C-alpha cells in the first residue's frame, strides 16, 4: 500500500539496490537504464503506485552515482508520466496514459478463458479499469471506512452519495429523479433480471431490436418469454414499423438500446425519439431503455441525446443504467430509474437483495464518479482513435461493409459473401476469438454479420485484423 494510516509511504533509498536488481546491465546511458529499471519495478508491482521515490541526492549516494545521473533519470520518468513531482513533496509513482486503461483482466470468473496461449479475444467489448482513478478512490474509501461504518444510520443505505450522484446526473439532463425513483443493482444485467422477474411470465411477449445485446436475450429467454424481433434498418429505428409491431404483439415488455446500441453503435435520431414519444402513449407495454452505452458518445462536442420520457410520472418507461462501460465492469454497479411504484415493486422482490451492489462497490463507485469526467474524456479520445484505426484497416477489404458508429464499443461488420459462424470457427484456428452475428439475434439469424470491438489498443487491433484476413483467405480457399 502506498498509504499507511493516511500518510504517504516512502521507499527508503537503501531498499533501491535490492528492488531494482541488476539494472546496470545493458546498453545506453546510465540514466536511461535506471529509468527503465524503475518502469519495470512499477509494472511488476514492486514499486506501488503513489509511493514516494527517494530524494535525488540520497538515491545517488545509495547507488554510487552522480546526482546529475539520478536527476536525468527522474527527468526521463517525468517525461514519460511514470512519476509526478510536486514542489515540497518530492516525486511519486504514477501510471502513464499508455499503461493506464489497458485491457485489464475483467473481474468476473471466466473459467479457463483468458489463460496464456488463449487466442486474441475480440468477444469481449469492455473497457479496462481506469487504474489511477480506481486506486485513488479505493484508498479514500479505506481511509474513511471506519467512520463510514460507525456512522451508518443503520438503514442499510451505505452513504446515499452514490444514489444522489446518479439522480443528479438525470436531473442535470432534464429528467426529474427524486424520491424513490432509483433502485441500485449489481450492474445492468441484474437490473434486467429484476425487471424480468417482476414483469415476465412463461410465454410473455418481449419486443426487442434485432440485433440486440445478447445478455438481454439471455435474461428474457431464461424467463421463458417469447421474443419478437423488430429489425433495425441500416440507419436505425423504423418507428412506424415498431408501432405496428407493438399494436399486433401487445408485449409485456419492450427492450430498446437507443443510445450507441450494442452491437451496431447506432444512435436513435431526435425525430425518431419525438415520434416514439408520441406513439408510446397508445401502448400498454413497459418500455425499458437500456442506457448502459449512453456515455460512450464519440461525437465531437455533441449534446446528449434527449430522453423519451421526460416526466417523473411516466409509468411505462424505465431506464436502466450502469457504470460498466463508462467506468469499469469490475465494479458491479447499475440501476433502474423508474416511477416510484415500479421501484417499490422491484425492491420488494425476494431476489432484489441478491441483485444489489455490494456496499464496498457502492462506496468506491461514489468516489470514482467524482472522477468520471476525466476518465470519460480520456476514454472517449482513446475509443475514437481505436475506432478510426480499426475502420481504416477494415475499409481496405472488399468482402465486408460497415458504418463507422457514432458511439459505443464495436463495429457491426456485414460479410458480403460469407457466414460469420464459419468465419469465426476459422478465425479461432488463427488464434482470434470472435462473436458471430447470431448471438445478437432474437431468432438466431444474422449470420452474415460479425461484431468487432475496438476496445483493444491499435497494435492488438492490427494483429486481430491480420488474423481475420488470414481466416478469410482460408475460408475462400476452402470454398
Ligand atoms: C447494452 C448493454 N446492456 C447491459 C450490459 C451489461 O452491463 P453490466 O455489466 O452493467 O451488467 C451490456 C454489456 O455489454 C450492454 O452492452
Describe this structure in words.
The protein starts with a strand and ends with a helix. Strands 6-12-11-10-9-7-8 form a seven-stranded mixed sheet, sandwiched between helices. It has a four-stranded antiparallel sheet with strand order 13-14-17-16, with helices on one face. It has a two-stranded antiparallel sheet with strand order 1-2. Helix 2 packs across helix 4, helix 5 crosses helix 12 and helix 13 runs parallel beside helix 15. The chain has 15 helices and 17 strands. 40% of the residues lie in helices and 14% in strands. It is of the alpha/beta class. The protein binds pyridoxal-5'-phosphate. The site of pyridoxal-5'-phosphate (PLP) has 14 residues, from helix 7. Pyridoxal-5'-phosphate binds next to helix 7.
How is this fold's topology laid out?
Blueprint: E1 3-4, E2 7-8, H1 16-20, H2 30-44, H3 56-63, H4 67-79, E3 83-86, E4 90-93, E5 120-121, H5 131-151, H6 161-172, E6 182-185, H7 188-199, E7 205-210, H8 214-222, E8 226-231, H9 239-249, E9 253-256, H10 270-280, E10 286-290, E11 317-322, E12 334-337, H11 340-347, H12 359-369, H13 372-394, E13 400-401, E14 410-415, H14 420-429, E15 432-433, E16 435-436, E17 449-453, H15 458-478
Parallel strand pairs: 5-15, 7-8, 7-9, 9-10, 10-11
Antiparallel strand pairs: 1-2, 3-4, 6-12, 11-12, 13-14, 14-17, 16-17
The structure holds pyridoxal-5'-phosphate.
Amino acid at each position: 500500500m502506498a498509504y499507511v494510516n493516511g500518510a504517504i509511504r516512502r521507499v527508503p533509498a537503501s531498499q533501491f539496490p535490492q528492488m531494482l536488481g541488476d539494472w546496470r546491465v545493458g546498453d545506453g546511458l546510465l540514466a536511461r537504464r535506471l529509468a527503465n529499471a524503475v518502469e519495470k519495478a512499477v509494472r511488476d508491482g514492486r514499486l506501488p503506485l503513489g509511493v514516494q521515490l527517494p530524494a535525488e541526492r540520497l538515491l545517488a549516494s545509495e547507488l554510487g552515482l552522480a546526482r546529475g545521473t539520478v536527476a536525468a533519470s527522474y527527468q526521463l520518468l517525468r517525461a514519460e508520466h511514470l512519476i509526478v513531482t510536486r514542489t515540497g513533496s518530492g516525486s511519486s509513482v504514477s501510471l502513464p496514459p499508455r499503461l493506464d486503461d489497458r485491457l485489464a483482466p475483467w473481474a468476473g470468473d471466466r473459467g479457463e478463458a483468458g489463460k496464456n496461449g488463449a487466442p486474441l479475444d475480440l468477444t469481449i467489448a469492455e473497457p479496462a479499469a481506469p487504474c489511477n482513478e480506481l486506486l485513488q478512490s479505493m484508498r479514500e474509501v479505506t481511509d474513511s471506512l471506519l467512520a463510514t461504518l460507525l456512522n451508518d444510520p443503520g438503514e442499510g443505505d451505505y452513504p446515499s452519495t452514490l444514489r444522489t450522484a446518479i439522480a443528479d446526473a438525470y436531473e442535470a439532463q432534464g429528467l426529474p429523479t427524486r424520491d424513490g425513483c432509483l433502485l441500485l443493482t449489481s450492474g445492468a444485467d441484474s437490473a434486467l433480471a429484476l425487471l424480468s422477474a417482476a414483469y415476465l411470465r412463461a410465454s410473455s411477449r418481449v419486443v426487442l431490436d434485432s440485433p440486440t445485446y445478447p445478455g438481454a436475450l439471455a435474461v428474457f429467454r431464461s424467463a421463458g418469454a417469447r421474443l419478437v424481433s423488430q429489425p433495425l434498418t441500416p440507419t436505425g429505428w423504423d418507428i412506424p414499423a415498431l408501432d405496428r409491431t407493438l399494436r399486433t404483439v401487445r408485449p409485456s415488455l419492450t427492450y430498446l438500446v437507443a443510445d450507441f446500441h450494442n452491437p451496431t453503435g447506432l444512435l436513435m435520431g431526435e425525430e425518431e425519439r419525438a415520434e416514439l414519444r408520441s406513439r408510446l402513449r397508445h401502448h400498454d407495454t413497459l418500455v425499458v431503455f437500456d442506457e448502459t452505452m449512453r456515455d460512450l458518445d464519440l461525437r465531437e462536442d455533441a449534446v446528449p441525446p434527449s430522453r423519451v420520457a421526460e416526466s417523473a410520472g411516466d409509468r411505462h418507461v424505465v431506464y436502466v443504467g450502469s457504470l460498466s462501460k463508462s467506468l469499469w465492469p469490475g465494479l458491479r454497479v447499475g440501476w433502474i430509474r423508474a416511477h416510484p411504484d415500479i421501484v417499490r415493486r422491484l425492491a420488494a422482490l425476494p431476489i432484489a437483495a441478491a441483485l444489489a451492489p455490494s456496499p464496498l462497490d457502492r462506496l468506491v463507485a461514489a468516489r470514482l464518479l467524482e472522477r468520471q469526467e476525466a476518465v470519460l474524456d480520456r476514454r472517449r479520445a482513446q475509443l475514437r482513435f481505436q475506432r478510426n484505426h480499426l475502420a481504416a484497416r477494415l475499409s481496405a477489404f472488399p468482402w465486408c461493409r460497415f458504418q463507422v458508429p457514432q458511439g459505443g464499443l464495436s463495429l457491426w461488420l456485414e460479410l458480403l459473401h460469407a457466414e460469420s459462424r464459419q468465419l469465426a470457427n476459422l478465425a479461432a484456428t488463427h488464434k482470434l476469438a470472435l462473436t458471430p452475428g447470431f448471438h445478437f439475434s432474437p431468432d438466431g439469424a444474422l449470420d452474415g454479420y460479425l461484431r468487432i470491438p475496438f476496445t483493444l489498443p491499435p497494435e492488438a487491433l492490427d494483429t486481430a485484423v491480420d488474423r481475420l484476413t488470414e481466416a478469410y483467405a482460408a475460408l475462400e480457399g476452402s470454398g
